[in-house]
């Protein structure tokens, strides 16, 4: 079982809405997940990520709309008919069964011939690096090991889709980093279409091919992590992925062309085809640079605060009443600028994104 027996599936979610009583928690979700993709639902607590994942698995109230696996709608079919594997945050291993029994359980339920069960269990445990622990009980394993067993138990039945609901959140920080790489390797080896639910942007960014950023039961944006980071569709996405300066202002036209004006003498040129009127400008702290004093087009400001973050220093700079966060790479022994110090900033317009929300 080193690769999928069947070709990986495409998942299409169309106009999916779901309510708990009168509360609508998914509001018309549309998503297309490609075969073999490692896809993330990323969003804050309560945004509906788990509800959406559970709807794919067939748990929870029946949604309106469609969930298609390779074009076939599965809404309305019972969970065990979907052949979709789910790994929960809490592992949910049977405490009274050994590791091998836990992994064998799903095969026995599916009436797989007993002669095939042993080799399949061993192969699944080998895939997650737990073959030596087959006769232990869950209570004799660390959290990370239990999570590996939970994974083995899910993949042993060769599901068409792998659903992971915050699978690493109970592990300590170092183990999480290692496990996410292991997960990625496993996913690539199996070639299985996988959805990973997390509220941790670093986790999603490092291992997922694409992400859907969710808020309030609505998909806010879909794309590769770097695409979404570089081109946030709205303020929520800009703030949720990384740190962003979001300047309020308007696009104005003048003899020199169009620019974004947020008062405070801060004008940034924008494309000629941008409509005039109210807008916001998103600028990441790492894309603003300190310039030599008096350099052309530089903005002058005052250091309001400085935070040492290890590899960099995050400054808050007051530019005529508008505060801008600016990250500067730290090198050994580099002196930090002091509060009240005069600085000049360079803001490359190509690094700024105009949004209208
Ligand atoms: N069984 C339920 N009954 C009523 N409301 C529910 C139920 N399950 C979830 N909800 C509500 O649905 C909304 C979405 O919850 P969901 O668990 O999908 O969010 P989430 O993004 O996965 O958050 P978290 O990261 O905290 O799990 C929340 O407002 C939650 O309170």
TrEMBL record:
Protein name: ABC transporter ATP-binding protein
Highest taxon above the source species: Bacteria
PROSITE patterns: ABC_TRANSPORTER_1 (PS00211), ABC_TRANSPORTER_2 (PS50893)
Record-annotated membrane-spanning stretches: none
Gene3D superfamilies, sorted: 2.40.50.100, P-loop containing nucleotide triphosphate hydrolases (3.40.50.300)
Residues of the ABC transporter domain: 11-241
InterPro entries: AAA+_ATPase (IPR003593), ABC_SmlMolc_Importer (IPR050093), ABC_transporter-like_ATP-bd (IPR003439), ABC_transporter-like_CS (IPR017871), Mo/tungstate-bd_C_term_dom (IPR008995), P-loop_NTPase (IPR027417), Transp-assoc_OB_typ2 (IPR013611)
Molecular function per GO: ATP binding
């Amino acid at each position: 079982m080193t690769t999928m027996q069947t070709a990986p599936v495409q998942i299409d979610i169309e106009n999916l809405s779901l309510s708990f009583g009168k509360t609508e928690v998914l509001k018309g979700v549309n998503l297309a997940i490609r075969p073999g993709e490692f896809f993330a639902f990323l969003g804050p607590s309560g945004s509906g990520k788990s509800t959406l994942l559970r709807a794919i698995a067939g748990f929870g109230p029946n949604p309106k709309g469609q969930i298609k696996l390779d074009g076939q709608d599965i809404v309305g079919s019972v969970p065990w008919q979907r052949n979709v594997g789910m790994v929960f945050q809490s592992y949910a291993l049977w405490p009274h069964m050994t590791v091998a029994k836990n992994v064998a359980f799903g095969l026995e339920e599916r009436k797989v011939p007993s002669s095939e069960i042993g080799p399949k269990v061993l192969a699944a445990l080998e895939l997650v690096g737990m073959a030596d622990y087959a006769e232990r009980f869950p209570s004799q394993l660390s959290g990370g090991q239990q999570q590996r067993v939970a994974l083995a138990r899910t993949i042993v039945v060769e599901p068409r889709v792998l659903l992971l609901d915050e699978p690493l959140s109970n592990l300590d920080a170092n183990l999480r980093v290692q496990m996410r790489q292991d997960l990625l390797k496993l996913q690539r080896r199996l070639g299985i279409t996988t959805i990973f639910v997390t509220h941790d942007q670093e986790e999603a960014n490092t291992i997922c091919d694409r992400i859907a950023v969710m808020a309030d039961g609505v998909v806010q944006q879909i794309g590769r992590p770097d695409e979404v980071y570089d081109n946030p569709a709205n303020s929520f996405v800009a703030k949720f992925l990384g740190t962003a300066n979001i300047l309020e202002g308007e696009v104005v036209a003048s003899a020199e062309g169009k620019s974004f004006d947020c008062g405070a003498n801060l004008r940034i040129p924008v494309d000629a085809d941008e409509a005039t009127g109210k807008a916001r400008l998103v600028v990441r702290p790492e894309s603003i640079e300190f310039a030599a004093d008096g350099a052309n087009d530089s903005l002058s400001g005052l250091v309001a605060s400085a935070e040492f973050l290890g590899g960099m220093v995050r400054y808050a700079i007051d530019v005529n009443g508008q505060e801008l966060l600016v990250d500067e790479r730290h090198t050994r022994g580099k002196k930090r600028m002091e509060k009240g110090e005069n600085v000049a900033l360079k803001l490359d317009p190509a690094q700024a994104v105009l949004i209208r929300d």
